[in-house]
Amino acid sequence: MKILMVVTDGFEDIEAVGTLAILRRAQLDVTFAAIDNTHALGRYGVNITDLVNLKDVNIDEYDMLIIPGGPEYIAEERNPEFLKMILNFASHDKYIAAICAGPTILGHLGLLKGKKYTCFTSMNEDFGGTYVDQYAVVDGKFITGRSAAAVIDFGFAIVETLCGKEYAQKVKDSIYY
Fold it and tell me: What's the pLDDT tens digit per position in 112-159?
């Protein structure tokens, strides 16, 4: 199982780094990539370097896409290639996980129609699905997280979905969660 996490400048630091840490703690194979660059500056000044440039990624090799939130979602949503990539994952029935502002992109693309989802509460629009007021929601191949406060639950929802409840519990126990 290969996972692709994509950021650009303005990403929500804790949502990207916290999720990445949980997934790597679970020994999942995660590629951390940036749109049109090999680095990205987080909303609160975390400068991530040595990222893979998304242009150099063969998305066909990946089973899941993760979209952290933050003000970056605006730049991502304006990037036709990024939107095309999301639609490619969806059309190939691959997993897509998004947190905070990230699910808004999915909603605008029509991917949340008929789905249960969560997102940053004030960004919830009528996406044609059912908004659920909880930290993490799994509906089929879509995993959504509510906010920066939801990072741990969001990360473990991904681990449980990909690796099973028992394995996720072992990883939770390793951090006394």
Answer: 999 999 999 999 999 999 999 999 999 999 999 999 999 999 999 999
CATH number reported for the structural domain that contains residue 37 in this entry: 3.40.50.880
How high is the pLDDT of residue 139? 98
CA distance 127 to 115: 9
Q: Do residues 36 and 57 lie in contact, with contact meaning Cβ atoms separated by under 8 Å?
A: no
The one-letter amino acid at 138: V
Report how many domains make up the chain.
1
Q: Copy the structure tokens of residue 154.
A: 């969001």
Backbone angles phi, psi at 70, to 5 degrees: 110, 175
* CB count in 10 Å sphere of residue 78: 9
**Domain of residue 121, residue span:** 2-174
Instruction: Name the token pair of 19.
Output: 């999720």
pLDDT at 16: 97
Residues of the chain with pLDDT under 70: none
The helix, strand and coil proportions of the chain, stated in percent and rounded to the nearest 5, come to 40, 25, 35
